[in-house]
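Researcher: Predict the fold of ABC transporter ATP-binding protein.
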Amino acid sequence: MTTIVGTPRLAARGLDAGYPGRRVIEGLDLEVSPGRITMIIGANACGKSTLLGVLARLRAPLGGLVELGGVDASTLSRRRFAQTVGLLPQHPTAPDGLSVAELVARGRHPHRGVFRRWSAADSAIVDEAMARTGVSELADRPVGDLSGGQRQRVWIAMALAQDPQILLLDEPTTFLDLSHQLEVLDLLRELNRTRGTTIVVVLHELNLAARYADELIVMSQGRIVAHGAPAAVLTPEVVAEAFSLDALVIPDPLTATPLVIPVPGGAHVHGDAEQDHAPTVRNEK
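Model: Structure tokens for ABC transporter ATP-binding protein follow.
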């Protein structure tokens, strides 16, 4: 049986990815820093979600490989991989009638073998995940009856119940108002700081990404155009290249992290304008 040795490091080597007849990503190399928060940003259709899906083994690469702890991820069983890597996709769905508690409990499946019964420890982990995401009072409610924001917090609770060492999230603040977006990102930062969980997040909000990330990955047209600390990466030149947007980048007055301010009339149109959209940029206070 293939095993993972040492600190799990998620990496892509010469990665090609996409769909039949269309490659979105070609020859991409990436190493996700263990124990840090990495945010992936870029215009729509640049390959962010495709990259995350391949890293999470939702789709097979068209070329190259994904490594986990120095091991070709395709050689690991799905259960073994899921014990280490958790995923919250962009548009998750739950079976009709499933309760919140039942959905969150599904996060424990990778840790339960054929002969391992549900334990008190499993219950404690599920309860903690619901408490940390503020959904304990919704435990008996059907997931389908919840608001968009409530459902998103329940899905995050399920990902936390999986107790992964690496957590991948595709737009986890979707459907949430600003206060709940901050709550979710604060929760992810707490998880990273207290448990050392490696967290990778695809996010549209540039200023929130810069505020919460230890590292930013900026993508454009299926390639990485910049990767590093937010202050080093989020420059007017990089914003122009990735988003076709003229912008000022100044220190946030509260956090000193980069703050992107679009210049009026500074957006440009790509040849792929029908697929790309201007980024959501919020001046967080």
